[in-house]
Design brief:
Strands 1-2 form a two-stranded antiparallel sheet. It has a single domain, classed as Winged helix-like DNA-binding domain superfamily/Winged helix DNA-binding domain (Arc Repressor Mutant, subunit A, Orthogonal Bundle), CATH 1.10.10. It has about 140 residues and is mainly alpha-helical. About 50% of the residues lie in helices and about 5% in strands. This is Transcriptional regulator.
Length: about 140
């Protein structure tokens, strides 16, 4: 399902791209987003796992980009936050004797596959640097 996770991750990475030589604290990032720093640290952990950022602890600690913003596509960021977009399926098992019910989930899966391919193609054309330059 769709959530705000992509927007949160993109906000974090956009901030980091604006200060490429600095380690930004989770408190600073959280202040920009108006969220709790724990939420920021959770997303930073995912970015570290995907080798996009590095962190250091201590008084001057924080997080910074490991890669140039020009080398990170929004598609790569999207795929770090979601496997795919799914707009949902019925909570109940559809009636297998109904001409629509017996095929609805299969047809929704095809629709979602097409949506994901379109999203991936579009986001692959935009780098973090391109997005960051809008600010």
């Amino acid at each position: 399902m769709i959530s705000g996770k992509f927007a949160i991750t993109l906000h974090i990475l956009t901030l980091l791209s604006k200060f490429p030589d600095d380690y930004l604290s989770s408190d600073f990032i959280a202040g920009s987003m108006n969220v709790h720093p724990v939420l920021v640290r959770k997303e930073i952990a995912n970015l570290k796992k995907n080798h996009i950022v590095e962190s250091k602890e201590g008084k001057n600690g924080g997080t910074r980009l490991l890669k140039s913003a020009s080398k990170i596509t929004l598609d790569a960021i999207f795929k770090m936050t979601f496997d795919t977009v799914t707009l949902g399926f019925s909570k109940n098992e559809p009636n297998p004797d109904c001409p629509v019910g017996k095929q609805i989930n299969k047809n929704l899966e095809h629709l979602y596959d097409d949506i994901n391919q379109t999203i991936s193609l579009q986001l692959n054309e935009i780098t973090l640097e391109d997005f960051s330059n809008k600010f």
